[in-house]
Structure formats: C-alpha cells, structure tokens
C-alpha cells in the first residue's frame, strides 16, 4: 500500500469520526447515561459535607480520605498499613437506581434499610437518599464488623443534612413513595 493511500485512509477515518461525533452530539439527551453531570449542582450534596460524618479511626487505625466529589466521599480504613475496609457515602440523587436494591430489604440497622452486597459489602440507605457503604478489603470483614462500622457513621447527622433544592430536573421519587397521577380523576356519571 502506498504512503499516499495510507494517509488518505487515515484522514477519511478521522473525518468520519469527527462528522459522526458532530451529528450525534445533538442527540445526547436521548442516549442512555444519567451521570452526576446531568444533575444541577444545587440538587446534590457536596462530598465535603460527608467527611465529618465518617467514623473516627480507632486505636492503631488510620482513616485516609481517597476521593471526594459532588455527591460522594470515600475513605480507606487502614490498620498497620493494611487496608481493612473502604467506606463511602453517596447522594443517590446522582443515581436514583441505587435506591432500588433497598426496596425489598427485610434487614434494618438503626431503623434504616440494610442490604448485603456479596460477601464483602454492606450498604445502608439513610433518609431515603444517602447510601452508606462498607466494603471489606484484604482479609475482609465479617457482616457483624461491617455493621459495626456502618453504625459508627454519624447516621442522624447524615439524615439531618439539608436537602438541596432541585432546579430544572425533578429527582426520582424514593422507593415506596407514591407518585401523584397526572391523569384527570374519573368523572362519576
């Protein structure tokens, strides 16, 4: 294949990709997704508000915050340099489908629905909005230890966080809530 032909093919592919991107861009609201970028800033709790609600590290332990962004904060619990657990709080306004797993939960912890996610993770839904999660790392933690860590979070403080006002986009209803019908009431004749 000649050098000119290879360059021509490369330019044709690049042009096709560019044209495809420009044509698909207007249809992006129709495409699947639903990321934190789709939610107004005012509708999501800032991740820094969650940091003070994490449990304090015990003797010989260290709590290292590893990620903080809009609607999410995460820390790693270490003991002697070894990771014990990954702790996280997330605002489900950014992913309402995260609440679905709590619908059929028969277990509760401090009055909030609790689910086990595999052998290493436990999650709690606080105030029908905030997911608190503990994931065992390394040798892992048994469910009792994970539940103790979940209880060590400031759950009342989390439930008391002010709910941001949603502007522009209506947040999905919490599981178990009744959504009002927009259809007119039947007229008794």
Characterize the structure shown:
By secondary structure, this protein is of the alpha+beta class. It has a domain at 44-159: Protein Transport Mog1p, Chain A. It is 22% helix and 26% strand. It has 4 helices and 7 strands. The chain has helices spanning 3-24, 48-51, 143-152, 155-159, and strands spanning 61-69, 72-79, 82-91, 107-109, 112-117, 121-126, 130-136. Strands 1-2-3-7-6-5-4 form a 7-stranded antiparallel sheet. The longest helix is centred in the N-terminal third of the chain and has 22 residues, at 3-24. It is elongated and about 70 Å long. The termini are far apart. Mean pLDDT is 82; it is low at 167-171 and 177-185.
Summarize the structure.
This protein has 189 residues and is α+β, with helices and mostly antiparallel strands.
Q: Which overall shape is indicated by the principal axes computed on the Cα atoms?
A: elongated
Distance between the termini: 81 Å
Secondary structure category: alpha+beta
Number of strands: 7
The CATH first-level class of the domain at 44-159 comes to Alpha Beta
CATH architecture of the domain at 44-159: 3-Layer(aba) Sandwich
Mean pLDDT metric: 82
Most strands sheet: 7 strands, antiparallel
Unreliable stretches (pLDDT < 50, length at least 5) are: 167-171, 177-185
From the alpha carbons, calculate the radius of gyration and give it in angstroms: 23 Å
């Amino acid at each position: 294949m000649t050098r000119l032909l290879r360059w021509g093919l490369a330019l044709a592919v690049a042009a096709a990709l560019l044209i495809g991107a420009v044509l698909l861009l207007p249809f992006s609201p129709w495409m699947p997704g639903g990321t934190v970028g789709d939610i107004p800033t005012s509708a999501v709790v800032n991740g820094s508000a969650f940091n003070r609600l994490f449990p304090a590290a015990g003797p010989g332990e260290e709590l290292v915050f590893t990620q903080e962004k809009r609607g999410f904060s995460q820390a790693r619990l270490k003991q002697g340099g070894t990771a014990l657990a990954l702790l996280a709080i997330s605002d489900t306004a950014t992913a309402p489908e995260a609440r679905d797993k709590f619908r059929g939960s028969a277990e509760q912890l401090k009055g909030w629905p609790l689910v086990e996610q595999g052998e290493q993770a436990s999650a709690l839904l606080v105030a029908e909005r905030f997911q608190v999660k503990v994931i065992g790392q390394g040798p892992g933690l048994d469910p009792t230890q994970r539940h103790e860590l979940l209880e060590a979070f400031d759950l009342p403080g989390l439930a008391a966080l002010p709910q941001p006002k949603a502007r522009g986009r209506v947040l999905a209803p919490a599981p178990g809530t009744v959504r009002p019908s927009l259809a007119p009431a039947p007229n008794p004749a």
